[in-house]
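tool=predict chain=A
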Amino acid sequence: MNTLMHLLRLAAQTLGIVALADFVAGLIHWAEDAYFTAETPVVGPLLIRANIVHHHYPRFFTRLSWWQSSWDLALVGTGLLLVAWPLGLLSWQLGLFVLLSVNANEIHKMAHRTRAENGRLISSLQDWRILQTPRHHGRHHADPKNTYYCPITNFVNPVLERLQFWPRLERFIARLTGATHRHDTAVRGQGPGPAWLAEYRPAAAPSPCAKNCAGCPRCAKRAE
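tool=predict ok
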């Protein structure tokens, strides 16, 4: 009986830590989407510009290395562990939280990759709902792109939606500060976006030349 209770407590703690890491990642994602711009000092060029690119061209994210998409989270996670160490606060719970938080963007990236790009293991983890599925994350990229911010699991976002957490939080902030959700040009009909987005626009695939030329890369592309 004691062993069973210990396992249940362990499972409950693990589930709670996963949910907390997902929520914190979603909170950061929401703040980036809602209130910061590419012109915000320091964080604008370092973080928000990439966020705007991602809303306009979601697949661009998949070209980035782990470090390119996770360096900021890695630095914060390392800092948290360095603070916890001398205070005697290191634990497996904190370690799991940091591990998930540092890799939140990588898990987010997996939701934008194809099954072939993810490989069998990651695709299976998504099928088993251990990692967030592409279909679930797709709700965030559906206009008006102001919901489903949490990128790790499939179970935190629906709870927050039922509570209307994000709109209530934004209404509270608006009453307190006057700040409102920033304009998102990635939403259909809201504008073409900043001029600098052009450098991230995916290259158009060359169309076949219709001559079926031997050795022609455009004809070979059609044959694929």
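The two ends are 60 Å apart (CA to CA). The chain has one domain: 2-223.
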